[in-house]
Amino acid sequence: MVQHLAHELRQPLSAIENIAYYLRITANQRDERTLEQIEKLQRLVEHANWILDDAIHYLQAAAPQPVLVDVNELITRACGDESLAGAREARLLLADGLPLVSLDPAQGEHLSRSLVAFANKAGGPFCNLEIATGLSSDMVTLWAAFNACGLPKSDPRPLLEPFAAHLPGGSGLALASTRRIAEAHGGSVTVEMIHEGRLQVVVALPAAKDGCARNVSDPATHILAQPR
Fold first, then answer.
1. pTM value surpassing 0.70
2. What distances in angstroms separate CA 5 from CA 10, 32, 41, 208, one per listed residue?
C-alpha cells in the first residue's frame, strides 16, 4: 500500500520537477528573484520525495537485502548530498581501517542521509556540526553532534519516535526511520545531551566478521563548512 501510494504521488511530483526545470532554462537568467523561486520549488519537490522515501523505510515496505558496506563511503556521500552551507562550521572525521557492516545498500544510504539531514536542520543556522565514524567493541559507530536549537534538552529520546513534538519542520520521520533501519540490521540508535547544550546521535551497527573498509588516505578531519 505504501509503495503504491508513493508511486502515485511521485508521478505529479515528477511532472512538477520537469516544469521547474523548463522554467529554469527558459527564465531570464538576470531575474534573480524568479530564479530563486524556481530553485525553491525544485528543493521542495526533492524534499517531498525524501519524505516519501522516509515513510517507506520506516514501514519497511521492502525487506532488507544486506551486503557488505563501507560506512565511511556512506557518510561521505551523505555529506556531499546534503547542503551544509547553513552550518557555521561542519567537520567530518573518518576512522581509519573500519570493518565493513552488513547493510541493505538503499536502506544504508537513507540511514546516513537522514542522520546528516536531521543534524543539519535541527542544529539550525550557524551551528557547529561534527560527524564522525568509529569502532566501539564489535560495533561500527556513526555519530553526529550539534547545537540542540529548540530541541528538548531534558529528555531527547522522543526524537526517536515518529511524529515527535519539537522536530524541525519538514523533518519527515527523521530519526525514527534511522532507528528502524539500524535495528533491522542488529544495530541501535541512541540520543543524549552532552556538554554545552549539544545533542549527540549515535548509530551503532554490528561489524562484519569478514571484510575491512579501504584505509582512509587522510584520516584527519575534513572541513565541510567553516566560519565566514
1. yes
2. 9, 36, 22, 35
